[in-house]
Amino acid sequence: MLIIAHGGAGAKRPTKKALKKLEESLQAGFKILKDGGSALKAVVEAIDILEDSGLFNAGSGGNLQLDGKRRLDASLMEGRTLKAGAVIGLQGFRNPIRAAEVIMDSPHRILTNEGARVIARAHGLKRLPPPDHADLERLRRKIKKGAALDAYKKYFSTVGAVALDKGGNVAAGSSTGGVSTMLPGRVGDTPIIGAGVYADLNTAVSCTGKGEEIIRVALAKEVSMNMKRKGPEAAGEESLKKVLGLGGDAGLIALDSAGRFTIAHTTGAMASGYAREGGIIVRQGFRVIK
Ligand code: GLY
User: Fold this and answer.
1) What's the number of domains the chain is made of?
2) Rounded to the nearest whole angstrom, what is the distance from the C-alpha of residue 86 to the centroid of ligand 1?
3) Distance (Å) from CA 200 to ligand 1 centroid
4) Is the residue at 94 inside a domain?
5) Residue 242 sits in a domain of what CATH number?
6) Choosing from 15, 158, 203, 267, which is the catalytic residue?
7) Which atom of ligand 1 lies nearest, measured to the CA of 196?
8) Does the N-terminal or the C-terminal CB of the chain have fewer CB atoms within 10 Å?
9) Is the dihedral of CA 263, 269, 270, 275 positive or negative?
10) 158 catalytic, yes or no?
11) Is the pTM of this model over 0.90?
């Protein structure tokens, strides 16, 4: 049994509060695994806690798009069944990962905007109030300063988790508020199966970073494929170098069904950690790939 979670790759060092919350989410996810719950349930629970905290760029802490709207994305995948679900541009609800979980068992794989909202409402997901005055004021100041669309080089965030349960099954999930400066309607890697997350019988991968280049590399699937011929560390490194080659920045967590794993990022920091029988480790970052 193993669960890994991250609070986003980026240049900023994570706060102590964020690291503590990450530890709490790992604890909750690992408890599910210990109690015999599935990797999928553990991943959803860990991400839900991070979304609720408001400390990360996901859920209630998600970034605003330039029109002042908070549009949230998430995706989820289970390895053994290849079941997948994703949500794009969810507004008014704080746990897009729960919406992705619902969609996974629907006839569809991805729902956007109004369709996503209807599903979230129908399943009684927790509401998220619209951005408040302080949020909008921060955005106004950013726009006034002329925040460039590539200012997001500096900070990404996003949250994610991968897990391996007692039965040897794996799952991966990811949730985000996007990047720090983005046009309304912009979508990154997080809700794109194969880019932001991927899981199959033996591997589970969750990515973070600048979605534009992650999508071009189909990073999560790329890592998973590389893990067929090399260990997670080497597979993660090779794949992240492709993102760097396109001028992007990213981070990832990946594990296999034998319990081998990697936590790696091209950025200076990536709040992340793991929980297994031996205990919980949480750090500001793990392997930096250059
Ligand atoms: N990785 C999050 C995004 O690009 O939206």
Assistant:
1) 1
2) 14
3) 22
4) no
5) 3.60.20.30
6) 158
7) 1
8) C
9) positive
10) yes
11) yes
